[in-house]
Every structure is written in C-alpha cells, then in structure tokens.
Amino acid sequence: MTALRARPGTAPDTDAGVVPAPPPTVPALDEVGDPPSTVDVRLLPVAAVAWIVALLVVRVPPRAALLTALLCFVVGVGVLASGRRAGRDEQPHVRRTPRRGPVGPVVALCLVVASAVLGAGASQTSARDDGLLPGLAQTGAVGRVEGVVVGDPTVLPPAWPGAPERVRTLVAVDRVSARGRESGATGHVLMLGPSSWGTVAPGARVAASGRVRPGETGRRTVAVLLSSGAPDVVSEPPAPEAAASRFRDGVRSLGATLPGDAGALFAGVTVGDTSAVPDDLGVALRASGLTHVTAVSGAHFSLVAALVLTLAAAIRLPRAARAGLTVAAMGALVLVVHPSPSVLRAAAMGAVALLGLLLGRPHRAPAALGATVVLLLVADPWLAGEVGFVLSVLATAALVLLGGPLADRGAGVLGRPVATALALPVAAQLVCAPVILLLTPAVSLYAVPANVLAAPAVAPATVLGLAAGCVAPWWSAGAEVLALGAGAACWWIGAVARVAAAAPGSQVAWLPGWTGAVLLAVAGACVLRLLVVGREASERSRR
C-alpha cells in the first residue's frame, strides 16, 4: 500500500468535466531532473475517508458530528501512540521481518482527518442553521437577504411560450431580515429573478426581497429566493473582481468577431464562458465527450504554470520567485474563471505541489491530490457532493495512476507517444463514465478518438485566447491576430465534436441510475484488469 511503480508514461496532473484531453507537462521549479521512481499513494485512503465523512457531516446534526469528531481524534491519537510504543519496545538486536506498509500511521491519520472534517463540518452546518434564514425557508415566508454575487448570472429558458425571461444567480448571503427582525446568515442562496438580474456583475453586493424556499438537503445552497423585482445593488464589485469582469467581457467581445463554431467556443475554451455556445454544438460536445474543453480545469492551470515557469527559468529567477509568480498567476486565473469545484481542486493541487517543490520535496501527484482533497473538504465539506468536483478528482486520479500502465500496454505496438496519447482519455473515460452515466444514461462510443483528435488544438486555443484577452486593452490589432489563431483551434474542436456526434452509434443507451453505474464500473474494472494486470501476468508466465 505504500507505493506503486511509476511507468515512464505516467500522465501529468489534469482534470476534466467529462473526458480530459492530455495537458502539457509543467516544468519543475528547479532544473529538470529524473522523474520519481515511485508514486506515493498513502494519502489516497485518507482522502477517501475524508470524502465519505464530508458527505455524511452535512446531513447529520452538528452535535452528533462533534461527538464523533472527538471520538475519532482520541482513537487516532491512541493508535499512533500505541504504534510508537511498540516500536520502542522492539529489541535492536532481534532481527524482525520488515513490515509491508505503514498501516498503523495511515489508520491514525484517517481517524485524525475524519475528526477534522467532522469538526469543521459541524461548525459550518451549525452556522448555517443559525439566524432567520432556515426558518423562513421551512415556512416559505417572505424575507430580504443581502450578500455578494458569486459567479455569472445564467439566463433560463422560458417556463412556457411567451413567459418572461428569468435569470438564476448565486449569492453568498450574510444578512437576512423579515417581519421586523434581522440576523446574520451563512451560506449560498439561489436567486431566481427577472432579466434585470442579468446585469449584476460578480462580486457586487446586492439585496433582494422575495419568497424563500428551502434548498436541497446536503447541498451548498441553503435556500432559493423567488424575486419579482430588480436587485438593489448595495456596492459595486471590488477592484480585482471588476478587472476580472472586464477581462471576461474582452474575451467575449473577441469571440463575437469570429465566425461559426470558432466564435462560439472561443470564450468557453479560454475562460469557461459557454453563453455563446448554441444548443446544437452543446449537444455535439456532450455526445462526443468533449464538454470538458469548455470547462476550466487542471489543463488551464498546467498551461499557465508552464508558461510562467518557462519564462521565469529563462531569466534565471530563484526557486522562491518562480513559485511566487506561479501562485500569483494561478490566483489571477481563479479570479477570472470563478472558483468552481473543479477550478478549486486544480488550483489547490497546484499550490500543494508548488509548496512541496519549494520545500525541496519530490513531486508526487497522487499525494498532492490526496492532500488537496482533504484540505478542500475541511474548508468546504459540501464540495463532496458536487458532480464537477467528483469528476475532476476521479479524472486526475485515473491519469496519474492508470495513464502510465495503459501507455506501457500499447507502447510496444504503437510507440510511446501514440500510446500515451491514447492512454490518457481511455483511463479517464473508464473511471469517469459511471458518474457521467448518472447524469446521462448513455455511453459515448467515440469519446476516446474524439479527445485524441481534439487534444492538439486545446493548448493553442487556451494559450492564444488568454494572450488575446491580456493584449486587448492596449493593442487591439495584436489581440485580433491572436484571437484568429485561437479561433482556428476552436473551429477544429467544434468540427471534431460535430463529426463524432453525427457518426453512427455515437451514443449507446445504458441502464440508468445506480444499477447502470455499478455495472459500468465493473465493466471498466474488468477492462483495466485485462489491459494492465493481464499483461503483467502473461509476462511473468513467459519468464
């Protein structure tokens, strides 16, 4: 359990909404050296325990969660202390059989992490339950909330022909009032209001009145507010948020100058804004397994980090300066694209990896992934139930653990580059397909070849699109030239999606629900066993 052998084709870190395209390799902060010979997986069971506990803590009473947290902490410390005591009692002259792995410390760490998630989750759920908001939601009463807009507004289709346009907006509330009373509030409220809500910029502080409905149990949204009036803008977004909004507006404007699928995908590939993607292209992206190219993920952070680190290395900056610049660039990207679950995972994992490099530790992608999951779930246990976060973590785990073995499987026949290009989407598809099936009861047959064909265009589209957005405020002609290059790459992605979606049998119906997901997971495990374990067993039998 301590480690797995890493093959030369082990994939770099990335994530995706559906099936990820291979991201570029990010150079280290130091001079490039030999890759690590092992993949440290000791934190993966710890992350799994944290995930299970996070799913539970948002659904149980805070008092029960706190008592369980205390019990887990005491037991965990006891397990660790007993292991150390047993180690001291061993006689140095007695030769003992080496242990197979640090089971005791891992168990102790699992219990301590469970205690941390339970304690943090209990504190957060208790804060959400305080004040007037939960009571208003339960009774369906009218109230007034105040908070900060989170993310871009989303225009909803009319409920019936001729119905007025409605806009959905997420607001992080901190004040609520009703019936002459006022209190603090914690959590997100989903606002459903008229079209005037579409003009509110992310980061603005707003107030609104309406009927309050309860949110879904175990989800981040505390309540839903049905408003019939325009929002009351209390204050404009702060300067960083305003600058990020101007950047996104500039990217949208550049995309509007491009024709067809190039303009439709430009903002989506660059900053994750899919407002310009038409319905037919959206259906084609889903059918071909290419939806992830319009969702900001680890590939974006890998590209940005690669550019910053390459430039910093070219001017010979010290390691600390390289790390600082990279963190600043990733922070700016988070601000521009909004902190969605997959973005948070990608940014946090990059920060953990950079910290390890800054401290002189070797980069271990699974260990960084495990640490990231634990930190994010302690900070926000509701992430455990977000589909985007689930797919992001599963895709990354598939790439770093299965990408290398699958690449080895085909390297002898196809060659290392081709085998690696095929291994990455195959690994992600096999692991993510059961979760995707819960959303759409169909399997995309051409997802792997579509991702392989579209992968070479993803990096140029993203890099040139971001560069065009940066150049646009002070050099419009240069921004238009860069946008043309990004648009050409976006056109290719759209063409691949449309051809794959139009091919015969592009999607095969499957059993819906958890039954179909379990069957698909079992089928994927069997395929992996045949591709990886079966090959190794046959090689051993030949010897």
Short summary:
The chain is an alpha+beta fold and 543 residues long. It has 16 helices and ten strands.
3D architecture notes:
The protein folds into three domains: 8-35 and 245-542, no CATH class; 60-89 and 101-129; 133-216, OB fold (Dihydrolipoamide Acetyltransferase, E2P) (Beta Barrel), CATH 2.40.50. It is 59% helix and 13% strand. The chain is built from 16 helices and ten strands. The strands form three sheets. Strands 3-4-5-7-6 form a five-stranded mixed barrel. Strands 1-2 form a two-stranded antiparallel sheet. It is globular. Residues 1-37 have low confidence and may be disordered.
Number of strands: 10
Biggest β-sheet: strands ordered side by side in the sheet: 3-4-5-7-6
Shape: globular
User: How are helices and strands ordered from N to C?
Assistant: EEHHHHEEEEEEHHHHHHHHHEHHEH
Total count of domains: 3
Number of helices: 16
Percent in helix: 55-70%
Low-confidence stretches: 1-37
Cα gyration radius (Å): 25 Å
Structural class: alpha+beta
Mean pLDDT figure: 80
By oligomeric state, this entry counts as single chain
Distance between the termini: 26 Å
Which terms summarize this structure?
5-stranded mixed β-barrel; OB fold (Dihydrolipoamide Acetyltransferase, E2P); alpha+beta; 13% strand; disordered N terminus; 16 helices; two-stranded antiparallel sheet; 543 residues
